[in-house]
Amino acid sequence: MIGRLRGTLAERAAGKVIVDCGGVGYVVAVSAHTALALPIVGETVTLRIHTQVSQDRIALYGFASDEERELFDALITVKNVGPALAVVILSGSTPEAIAQMIVAGDLAGLTSIKGLGKKGAERIVVDLREKADYMLASWGASGTAVSNKVVAAVVPKAARDPRLDEVASALVNLGWRQPEADKTLEVLEIRPESTVEELLRDALRAMPR
Question: Whole-prediction pTM value?
Answer without folding.
Answer: 0.66
